Every structure is written in C-alpha cells, then in structure tokens.
Amino acid sequence: MAKHDNADGGSGNAAAELLGTRLGYLLKHAQLRLAEHIGPALAPFGLDARELAVLAVLAGDRPLSQLEAAQRLGIDRTTMVALLDALEGKEFVQRRRSEHDRRRNTVELTEHGHRTRAAAEQAREAAEREFLAPLDRTATAQLVHALRTLTRTP
Fold first, then answer.
1. Looking at residues 113-136, what average pLDDT do you find?
2. Is residue 126 left, alpha or beta, with left meaning phi > 0 and alpha meaning psi from -120 to 50?
3. What residues does the HTH marR-type domain cover (predicted)?
C-alpha cells in the first residue's frame, strides 16, 4: 500500500473531500492562495498586503489619527504603531501633531506614498484578477458580495 493510502485502500480523496466541505478550511486556503498572487505583485513596491491596506486607509481626504486608522482596519493600536513605523521608515507616511489636538498624532501619505500606493493598487488588482480567473464575472461578483455580507459588522 502506498504511503498516502488510507486503511480502506483510498488515496486520501475522502479526507480532501471532507475538508473541502468545511468553510474555515476553504476560506483559509483561498486566502493563502490569494496571498501567493499578491505577495509577489507587491514586492517590487516594498510593501506587503497589510501595509498597502494602511496606505489605502490613509489615502482619504483628510489626515487620520493613528487610532482612527487602526479602527478602520480593525487592528489594535500596537500593531498599527508597528505598521506605521515600518511605513515611515520607507518614507511612505509621515506623522504630525494634530493641529486640533496636540495630544494626538495624525498620519498622512507622503508624495512617495501616494505614488507607490497608486501603482501597488494596480498590481494588487491584477493579482486578484489572476487569482479569480477560474471564475466568470457573475461568480466573482457573487463571491465578493457574499464575503462583504459575511464581514459586515452587526
């Protein structure tokens, strides 16, 4: 019997089929496969997906405080500080004292950050299209709609 065969003589297909019905397994592995596309697409920009998400949140029409940015991303303050430290070190963002409240910092993109975010977003979108290529437009739209519905906060 081959190493991967089950006691019943199967080749592990039953286990794969069972796991393939579990939502957590499917979501985790879909995310891992998506990361395999997006990671290399963002590497030339010196960014990872989390850092690009921070840049996207900060690209709004007004500077945000570190806390506001963390809340919009759904991450804790400590993680946000670490992300901003890295992005500041790459000269993508700058921190400043708030003009309205000297006790807090605001964060905004530098010109370099704006240019890099725009180019990196195009690369991310292309990587997502590549990942989603096995699905037609209708299935892609349904997947995105379903995930938005599931991730909405109550």
1. 97
2. alpha
3. 20-152
Residue 7 lies in a domain: no
pTM of the model as a whole? 0.81
Q: Residue 82 falls within a domain, yes or no?
A: yes
Nearest to 124 by CA among 54, 37, 31, 30: 37
Q: What is the CATH number of the domain that holds 101?
A: 1.10.10.10
Whether residue 12 is contained in a domain is answered as: no
* 37-50 confidence digits (pLDDT tens): 999 999 999 999 99
Question: What DSSP assignment string belongs to the chain?
Answer: --TT--TTS--SHHHHHHHTT-HHHHHHHHHHHHHHHHHHHHGGGT--HHHHHHHHHHTSSS-EEHHHHHHHHT--HHHHHHHHHHHHHTTSEEEEE-SS-TTSEEEEE-HHHHHHHHHHHHHHHHHHHHHHTTS-HHHHHHHHHHHHHHHS--
136 forms bridges with which residues in the sheet? none
Confirm whether 101 is domain-assigned.
yes
Please state the domain count of the chain: 1
